[in-house]
Amino acid sequence: MAVFSINDILLASDGLASNNTAPVPCIKPKVSESISSSVLYLPIADALVKAIPIRECQEKVIDLLEVKEPRLKPRSAVDTSYCPAYEGYSRVRLGVYRRLVSMLRYLPKDIGIAYSEGFRPFSKQKEYFDAIFKDFLHKTKDGKEAYGEAAKLVSPFIDNKPTHCTGAAIDMALFRIKDDSNLEVLDMGLYDSSKDNDNETFTTSITEIQKENRLLLLKSATKAGLVNYGYEWWHYSYGDRAWAYAKGEKYAIYDLVVDKSDPILMITKESYLAEASLHTDTK
Ligand SMILES: [Zn+2]
Questions:
Q1: Which of 63, 117, 149, 165 has its CA 20 to 30 A from that of 91?
Q2: pLDDT tens across 222-233, in order?
Q3: What is the value of pTM for the model shown?
Q4: How far is the CA of 161 from the centre of ligand 1 (A)?
Q5: In this structure, which residues have their CB less than 5 angstroms from ion ligand 1?
Q6: Ligand 1: distance of its center to the CA of 281 in Å?
Q7: Does any domain span residue 108?
Q8: Strand partners for 197
Q9: Residues 144-165: pLDDT tens digits?
């Protein structure tokens, strides 16, 4: 039985920001204040989010694969069609792990968490951004526009602290334990950040079951202290700038967990766009 109903959600007619200077957020429904205050409705690399200072708290990164909790599993263990995207995907900050464990208390006993990507190396972040940027560039032929659109789907690696590279973020879905050897990922709609259809947490163009399952994930995660990225139903974080912005915290507590001498850190937006225009022009 669902813990709550999708009927709790009513689309707000005033969903868009009333301040004309504010960026246009994604769909913002009316949910209870406790949930609404735990969803980021701005692009993840918006200037308002990036302006939040970070005070690294030096908390360690742990590997979820070493955790013996039957209701916390890598997606690949539940969904045979899914392969882990890269090595080390199961690492998160200790504070994130604690909130995932806390989440389980708010979920029905036969429901668990299927996580797919936690910590992400900077090189992998660049790879993801490059792929989506190139897609948009192909469509628009405008580097700046393509960069802005790509930045809504993947946090840029330039002049930014991508949340997955800090150990603050986790991408996840829910699964049902039918019996010990029979686990099933709940139907929550498409899980693919390269497609911009129906990824928004509160999109209305998905089935009622998908809406209910997304809401179950959202309600349990936000109760545990995580925040959701409103453009992606599967993306949650704690301790990063998105969390600080949504929760009204003065600063984030997790900085990048990367090699500071990585040459990727030296790439500027100008050099990246110049390189891109070179390739578009010579097509
Ligand atoms: Zn994510």
A1: 149
A2: 999 999 999 899
A3: 0.85
A4: 13
A5: 169, 171, 235
A6: 33
A7: yes
A8: none
A9: 999 988 887 788 999 999 999 9
Q: What is the residue range of 171's domain?
A: 40-281
The answer to whether position 249 is within a domain reads yes
Q: Would 5 be classed as within a structural domain?
A: no
Tokens of 93: 């900050």
The single-letter code of the amino acid at 78 is V
Ligand 1 centre and the CA of 269: distance in Å? 22
E-strand ranges in 12-140 read 29-30, 39-40, 61-63, 72-74, 91-93, 111-117
Indicate the number of domains in the chain: 1
CATH code for the domain in which residue 246 is found: 3.30.1380.10
Provide the token pair at 227.
């925040």
C-alpha 141 – ligand 1 centre gap (Å): 27
H or E segment at 267?
A: none
How many angstroms does the Cα of residue 86 sit away from the middle of ligand 1? 14
282 C-alpha to center of ligand 1: Å?
Answer: 34
Nearest 5°: phi and psi at 113? Answer: -105, 125
